[in-house]
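Long-time lurker, first post. I've been practising inverse folding by hand and with some scripts of my own, and I keep getting stuck on stretches where the C-alpha cells seem ambiguous. Below is the full C-alpha cell string for one chain I'm working on. Before anyone asks, I'm not after the true native sequence, just a reasonable design that respects the backbone. If someone could post their per-position residues I'd love to compare against what I wrote down in my notebook.
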C-alpha cells in the first residue's frame, strides 16, 4: 500500500468508528519518523482504545501489521505506528493540551 493510500486507509477506518475531528498532516521533511500523521478524537477512554484496535485489526486483515501500539491501557492517547503513517487517537483534553496540529504544521 502506497503512503497516500495508507493515510487514507487510517482516516477511513477511524471514521468507521465515529472518530471526531479527523485531521491528516503531511510531515515529510518535518519528521524523520513518518510521512503522515492522522490525528483524531475519541469521546472516552473506551472509545479511544476501540478506534485504535479497530484500525489495527483492519490493517492486519490486509496483511499490514502495526510496528507498535502505545497507550492502549490508559486510553487517553493511543498511537498506532504503521511506518509511513501514524495514527494518534486522543481524548479531547489531551488533544487540546498537546496541540499536535500546531506542532507539526
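-- Answer (accepted) --
I ran through it position by position. Result:
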Amino acid at each position: 500500500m502506497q503512503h497516500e493510500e495508507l493515510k487514507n486507509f487510517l482516516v477511513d477506518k477511524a471514521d468507521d468508528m465515529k472518530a471526531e475531528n479527523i485531521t491528516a498532516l503531511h510531515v515529510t521533511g518535518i519528521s524523520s519518523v513518518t510521512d503522515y500523521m492522522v490525528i483524531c478524537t475519541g469521546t472516552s477512554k473506551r472509545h479511544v482504545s476501540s478506534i485504535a484496535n479497530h484500525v489495527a485489526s483492519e490493517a492486519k486483515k490486509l496483511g499490514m501489521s502495526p510496528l507498535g501500539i502505545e497507550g492502549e491501557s490508559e486510553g487517553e492517547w493511543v498511537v498506532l505506528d504503521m511506518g509511513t503513517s501514524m495514527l494518534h487517537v486522543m481524548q479531547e483534553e489531551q488533544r487540546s493540551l498537546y496541540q499536535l496540529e500546531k506542532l507539526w504544521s
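A couple of notes from the structure itself: The chain has a mean pLDDT of 95. The chain is about 40% helix and 30% strand. Happy to go over any region you disagree with.
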